[in-house]
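A brief tutorial aside. Many learners find it easier to grasp structure tokens once they have seen a single protein encoded end to end. The record that follows does exactly this for DUF5666 domain-containing protein. Read the sequence first, then the structure, and try to relate runs of similar tokens to stretches of the chain.
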Amino acid sequence: MVACAFTVGGVVASGLPSVAHAQASVLLKNQSAKAVVETVDHEARELLLREANGHLITIEYGAAVRDLPHVNAGDKLSIRFVETLGADIAAPGSPLPESTLTTARGYVHGHPRGVIAAFRRERATVQTIDLATHTLSFVTTDGESHIAVMRIKAMQEFMAGLKVGDVIDITRMESISYVILNDTVAPAADQTSAAPVATPATPAVPAVPAAPVAPAAQ
């Protein structure tokens, strides 16, 4: 079972900047699937989906999610999951990064569509750097210490430009977009309501296995 929890928090992974090692972003996940809604728990605010191969997916969308198409048991969905990880050196005196949640809805060829994107952001101070093992230790603003092994080249290059004491902002973005395939609207309504839904941008990097980033940075 795959659990996708969408709560307030996250990091946007933007394109690589012109200043080397000042920022890095990677695509951790970009996958699509078709599924049927098994159950809808309005109190727990959870959806249980079943993929064609029988795998179950639990989506916890949280109380902050608003303005999305209503989903019912038995609905057939086309789903896309995207996850990105980014990090950059924090500007001196800049405010602490804030986690956010974004939602949107619209239509795709008359089918209702929804998007939920969670941006989890944290600030951390570098404690140790081991380039030989690609290991970075840091402490977040809540006082928690963490160790991360950077197995992705973009993150290794970013780490190589750091020094002990640097302050960095870490951002993880998780998004799910879905289209209700068995539901359509009349052409007239589709024309007036079918404003395109903006989906979170993904960086132009190859999809590679995610590095085991410390829990607080996820």
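Self-check: The mean pLDDT is 80. If you spotted this yourself, you are ready for the next section.
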